[in-house]
User: Fold this.
Amino acid sequence: MRGLILLAVLIGLFAVGCGDANSFPPDFEAGDFHGAKIDNKWYSLTPGTQFVYQGVKEGKSARDVVTVTPAAKRILGVPTTVVHDQLFLDGQLAEETHDWYAQDEDGNVWYFGEATQELENGMVTSREGSWQAGVGGAAPGLIMESDPKVGHAYAQEHFKGQAEDHARVLSLSAATAGYEGAQLTREWTPLEPGVIDHKYYVPGVGLVRETTAKGPQEALVLVKKRRAQR
Assistant:
């Protein structure tokens, strides 16, 4: 059995290196994480920072406020940074999420899950999509590599039947929203085979734009990055 497990890990690592769209991140080790600091140049999460996005979602005017909190949540022995995400549609809070991230010693940013809820008229209508690494067979995924390569694909999350997002790097020199030299990724999930998203990341800034490449048209653009108000 030990030999079979080792073989599976080696096959998985080979698949990751080849950019297999169904591959998973390298074998997770809690010992690879030595603190809560996340300073990946493509996806830095400094406590107190707030990102404000505006656009269209579900045919409605959308405003997404993402705040990096000073809180930490220990998952699988790793102190993760808690990020608070509030999505407003036509001025009403429609979705609220707490996401958990951590950066390993090589600078890769991992995603450890989310507690999410959809709301209507101030009442919670669903918590579908919530998951936590280490619970019910869920495993951490990669949200951003330290040294992305064009063509490389990786799993961002893994909770069978609930959360199965993947990403592939399409470019490291894209232009968008007034920025040059952006990283462009294609994101999809087998749970929604008819939907493909494109995301643009800028060094030193982070995610600046998200738009639908296939499926219901949605778009969000960064309009403000600031220190969160206390």
Summary: The first strand starts at residue 49 and ends at 57. The chain has a mean pLDDT of 88. The chain has one domain: 2-227.
